[in-house]
Amino acid sequence: xxxxxxxxxxxxxxxxxxxxxxxxxxxxxxxxxxxxxxxxxxxxxxxxxxxxxxxxxxxxxxxxxxxxxxxxxxxxxxxxxxxxxxxxxxxxxxxxxxxxxxxxxxxxxxxxxxxxxxxxxxxxxxxxxxxxxxxxxxxxxxxxxxxxxxxxxxxxxxxxxxxxxxxxxxxxxxxxxxxxxxxxxxxxxxxxxxxxxxxxxxxxxxxxxxxxxxxxxxxxxxxxxxxxxxxxxxxxxxxxxxxxxxxxxxxxxxxxxxxxxxxxxxxxxxxxxxxxxxxxxxxxxxxxxxxxxxxxxxxxx
Length: 301
Ligand code: GUN
What we know:
By secondary structure, the chain is an alpha/beta fold. The protein folds into two domains: 30-121, Leucine Dehydrogenase, chain A, domain 1 (Rossmann fold), CATH 3.40.50.10860; 146-278, 3-Layer(aba) Sandwich (Rossmann fold). It is 39% helix and 15% strand. The protein contains ten helices and eleven strands. A six-stranded parallel beta sheet has the order 1-11-8-7-5-6. A three-stranded parallel beta sheet has the order 3-2-4, sandwiched between helices. It is globular. The model has no long low-confidence stretch (mean pLDDT 96). Guanine is lined by residues 96-99, 127, 147-148, 176, 281. Guanine (GUN) is lined by residues 96-99, 127, 147-148, 176, 281.
């Protein structure tokens, strides 16, 4: 079997065009352009690339993208003050604090990341990291959906891959991907996107004893562990759908959490790295920024 390549880049482009059209419509109705403020602390090269890509994507969609670049020497209270300013600025609809925050920041002590993310106004929390938005998602009445899991939902939906009654194994339990992904797939209805719901979900992680056996039972396997090529071909059930969230730099190559070559011989469909899940994250960030602009409009009248 040679797996079908799930082209996240193409789907992301499709979504971005839809958002650009919606932004135009929103502005034609007399609203100011949606505005996303990104805060980048320090000089991490990967974060700089991400933020530049976000700026470019915003511009193409007709969204104002503002980046606040702060030195690594910024203190916790200075960072919180920047967030408070943006919370209070009416023209800013979405706020994103680029992670990871530098471990050398805040006078060498490192930042209290939880406190920083908690400081973002939940109505402007386009990453959906605030406890309010996580709680709403848990209860099946989400406001913003976290960008990477939402991108995966859109990818499955647009490739007409179904989840109802299927066994999905999510490898990884991060707050950004693993945990919300599992929650979204187990929802009773398709409120998170299309008909993607009603899956039976297993969350596996670094302490899972029989990881290979559990993965082998997955109809859909989602790898989000951050360990290069950890998921081997033998861990995949023949015909399974494999979603690789990992982006790992190994020497001068980017590789996922899945051994792509071996997995492609077993799976029915698989996302490549790069060009799979990555581009969808930014597309869904644009979606959340437009949604934030619409919500703030609604809730301020
Ligand atoms: N760093 C890596 N992924 C993300 C993300 O989705 N949001 C933010 N804010 N930082 C990140």
